[in-house]
Write a structure and sequence with these properties.
about 1250 residues, five-stranded parallel β-sheet, 38 helices, about 20% strand, disordered N terminus, disordered C terminus
Length: about 1250
Amino acid sequence: LKGGAPSCLPSFSPAMANVNTVFDAFRKFYSNGLIPRDHLQLVLKCLNIEESLLDNAPCVQSKGDSINCEEFLTWVMGGLNPTAQPARPAPVVSAEEPPFDLVVLGGGPCGLKAAEDAAARGKRTAIIEPAPAISGAPTGAHSKCLREAVLDGAKTWAEIGETCQRVKASAVHQAARVLKTFRIAVFRGQGTVLDEGRVLFSPADGDGVQRELKTSAIVIATGSKSNRFPPTNYDLPGVYDSDTINELDHIPKVLVVQGAGIISVEYALIFAKLGSKVILVDAFSAFLPMLDPCLREAVQQSLSRAGAEVIMGKPFKTVEAADGSSLASPLVRIDIGDQVLECDVLLSACGRCANTKNIGLEALVQKGLKTSRGLIEVDANGYTGVGKVYAVGDCATGSMGLATMGQNQAARAVRALFSDSKISQSKAVKPSVVWTIPEMAFAGITEEQAASDGLNFGTVKVDFKRGLKGCLTNQDGFVKLVFCRTSGICLGFHIIGEGASELVNYGAEVIVSKTTIFQMLRFVFPAVTLHDLYHTVAAEGKLHQQGAHNLAAATRWRQLKELVQASIEKKNLGITVYQALEKAFRSFNKNSSGVLSAEELSQALRSLNMDVTPEDALEMIFEVTRDRNNSGLFISTFLKFFAIGEAAAEDPPRIGRCSTLEVASSLAAQVQLNYFDAIVLGGGPAGLKAAQEAGARGKRVALIEPKEFITGAPTGAHSKCLREAVLSGARSWNEVEAVIARTSELAHDEATRMLRTFNVKLLTGTGLILDENAIRFQPANGKEEVCEIRADAIIIATGSTSNRFPPTNFSLPGVYDTNTIVEVSRIPKRLVMQGAGIVSVEYASIFAKLGAKVVIVDAFPSFLPMLDTSLQQAIKQTLDSSGVEVIMNTPFQKVEEGEGSTPAAPVLCIDLGTRTLVCDMLIAACGRRGNTQNIGLEALAEKGLQINSRGKVIEVDENCHTGVGKVYAVGDCATGSMGLATMGQQQAVLAIRALFSKSGLMGTERVQKLQPCGVWTLPEVAWAGITEQKAQTDGINYDVVQVSSSATLRGCVTGEEGFLKLIFDRTSAAVLGVHLAGEAACEMVNYGAELVNNGVTVYQLLHFVFPAVTYHEMYHRAAAEAKLRLKGCTDLSMAISLKKAVSAKRGSWAERRPTTPLNMEQTLVEALQKQDTDDSGLLNRKQLHAAISSLDIMDSAEIEKICKEATRDGNLVDYKTLERTTSSAQSL
């Protein structure tokens, strides 16, 4: 024990390395042969080992307070790893003991899932597993551990080994909790199927006696093992396969990987990052054929950047030990025909095969069980066709070698065995992840599959840096969408970049629900998340739906068509658009050659006030011709591109009654210098979105923005930059500013690119509304004259500004609000935050991490009242751990300059009445109000426009119409945005669609009622749907489940703390709310919002398969626990204990009382009612004892636990709740 041991324990010398010496010290200290249990608990606590592991020791099965010393030491000696689950002696099934309801062969992720689900139904369940410890981790968990260690900066094998051991111990602990909670018997050894009702158990240690286990059902979940192909000699030192690779104990100098599949690529990139020279060799020529071409190319680039060599189409000829090879320093020589490779480690990763040998399948084959390529053939529910024998996971068909697919099979198998209800179909689309560096993920079909199936499809690929989160993190990656051009339905998503594994789950749900790109545009994501890229791909997909390749070129052609259409209507020319386009072409073609050059096209469009260079014109010509060799545009090609219903492309143009000259003059009149289809006032996220959306529809758009440097970033982007800097390890203000500058530059580049793509005219200055069609524009540079610009429509998107309340004096040095905070140029020593809202806690947690002493002060008593209590508590704990003080219900009395204050070193004194705070920085974050002053709204107020007095925002309808002409308002300056940037962007899309859409789809599309929200504290929190407080207030029959991130393998791997709280309706089982805390919470909440909006039940959620090593697994675990709680259960272990007691005693009880017409459960209810003498519905403990004791189903100690289970206060028992508890496992 580090630092010495407590006096009640034997003393240890730091030099004591021999285990036997330590054990002798224990024997000597506890000379009476007994160790007090609390002593051992203290030992485990000192060693940071879970005390609950003692419950798994055979020597602790008795109920005494002391433990036999020899038995305990023998248990520890069983593996010399106190964090591993101990081996249990083979249990004896006596003749009198009833048979099992289910025996599961295999304790991997699928076997553990099957056992857990069966035991949760009150079934007597056993697992037979040869390994010394059950972890429930998939085969690929080892590579994920190595990957996490590398990403955490590990450089030595000792550091890597520490991560692997921590993950293994955590996984074993989680599995032990499941086994204990659900009372699952564990048999360590080999299981052999004798027939469909018997399994032969052979203990692993070889000393025990074989036993025959009788069972009503069998689930085979024996997993898979690595393929071993000649000529590779696996007995050579330095040669490993995908099973034995976990025995590797060093970083290889040269690593050769046999096979170029997913596992190979994962290990190759990991070891390349660790400095190994890596060579991938595969006998086949196709590289990762299951991936979309864009992902294949990305993986090849990653391998190339890492210095890994890939050799395809070269099978091994010979594999032998090289000269000088030894056990300590192996050298392997590999002949691949035209060259010889030498390495110190060879990893053979040539796929896997089912573990179906020597488990007794021969007895079942005679009765109809079939195998295919070593896999047991099963139906959709894992059924083998023999008796009640099921097979799931890697040993069965249908799992695709994915742990989560196998777990889904396991759940379906148990339901088929023990549920009378109809089993619904599993989700057809399963997300998959490849844990390369960076990771990649996919769901749905690839571009190649779409082409092979003859689909009318389109693709969109969007880089991570197109979103603010990507700009913040400076992270490379992309999202690719494959969609149906006919219907707009999403067909496939392909993603690469860190976070892809969490990002793909929303995409899979979109594909399953057959969501269209138009419906995706109605979903609102938190602004600074990678999930916002789904919105971007949907927006571009909408533009690509009509076949556009180059968005900028397609937009300019569309603008030309819109211009022609408008000129026809305004001048009443009496010709069709097709005819007008033909005449326009002739007016452009000055030499009457019938061919427009790029120069001519550019000049023509510039004469129409369209900013088109000759280079842009070349792109426009390519958009029409799809031929890079064409530098000119023929009239026939031009007309074919614009062909519409009343004129086929091959028909000769029909000449109308007006001349070409008339068309030309009409076009010139239409494009007045200062006339637009739409003017957008404000260049924030909502304004920029509105301008892009209108421009994409071919509309002439002007965007008026006072700032020269336009980014489209939301107000809160500044805190996100600071947060990212902190997460990146910044400790000085220069490092923080570097992140801010980089993010701003990337966001500016993206905003500028989008404005140019959609030909939006940016006017730098201010605008004053004159009426519903006119704005007075004041240029910012002061050199140009004030002018009046007119438009058919005006979109107001002027955003918001920080509230400023007395007595805070904002002229004092060191005093900032949420607007001026961007001017901060130092890390404060002492910071006071005025207000305890979301912005305050974000800045407080960030500056605290940067070393500031922070105090939050709020005039109101409620702390973040919009959050669920669990998230309030999580944020308070975060603030407490960072040393942040929170003072509520205390308004400022006075704010003034302190003694010695200077602009460079300010001192501020804040009088709170009962105390005075002294600080060098004060940030007032007391909410925001709409920027609706001094923009000319008075001219519209006379015509019906209204300003909401609370927040100074413009009143708008569901489509953001102000009620005046074609004037719309979106974002923070309008009602309905909730101050969220993404809500404002959605409003912008709705407004433009309401103005210019002719499809009529707006009234038929599904609207997402609930939007996900996030708070960017450290760590972040997020939510969607109702809080528990709201459920209580509304009188909803609800329940909650809270799952820790450590319950997932991803949580075990990363060690990150966090949780998911699920609120669900007990009556309908619908998910009502999700509340998350922890890193990635703002990414994960989007899937939860989709669940709430679609009314998904916990049962339906169980059918979704998440990638194995992701935080999204928490949704599955929460749904599984919610399923058990639907009848009121609060302690799963006790509920199952009562159910099993009732089940076990039912047969003998019926024999003793043959004349009783009621069944066991009915009699339990009758016994409870009999004790309720005052008809109150409540029983005290004495009455409960009497009721249950009369049935002789459990002892007094267990009844005490049941009493605690049935009541939340431990005094009186609501026996109606007890009835629900008893029936929960059976009913569900």
